Amino acid sequence: MISIERTRPGNYTLTVQAHTGGSPEAYLYGWIDFNRNGKFDENERSEKTTITSDGNAVLTFNNGPILNDLELHKLGVRVRISTHAPDIESPTGMSMSGEVEDFETQVIFPPKGSKKETEGVQGVTQKGTVEFTAQGKQRYSKKQKMLLSMKPLLHIS
């Protein structure tokens, strides 16, 4: 399953395999059904991604909602690719080239952390404690539910 990654609150990236189909350039747009209303709204569209060779393409979603519902595990996604970008600016409609893929993406919540600021002068060894606590599921399975331990996952001193 493909997963979205949060780069900062409200911003997400989605990496997909894309192929130019032999053209010098191809363009991609993606939509994530963030509000789970069963349709792809205009404000759920990624920025345009341009590719010049086959391989991974990163779709960037700016100004999305801040996902913090730990019961949310998957969201619907649509990705469109074409050699003519205006044909794929909306989630539906005709395009003279390319293809459309619909799938679900796994939602991964980053660990929550706490930090302490040091007060020493620059250049002098500083000490502090950083703790991260996992949230969401550790593993996803279609057959069983996963229990999550709330013990700190990482401790740096």
Structure description:
By secondary structure, this protein is mainly beta. The chain contains no helices and ten strands.
Give the overall average pLDDT.
Answer: 80
Helix percentage: under 10%
> SSE order, as H and E?
EEEEEEEEEE
Class per helix and strand makeup: mainly beta
Beta-strand content estimate: 35-45%
The radius of gyration is 20 Å
How many individual helices? Answer: 0
Please report the distance between the alpha carbons of the first and last residues.
35 Å
| Shape verdict | elongated
Number of strands: 10
Low-pLDDT sequence parts: 146-157
* Biggest sheet features: 7 strands, mixed
Overview in brief:
This protein is mainly beta and 157 residues long. 0% of the residues lie in helices and 39% in strands. It has a seven-stranded mixed beta sheet with strand order 4-3-6-7-1-2-5, with no helix packed on it. Strands 8-9-10 form a three-stranded antiparallel beta sheet, with no helix packed on it.
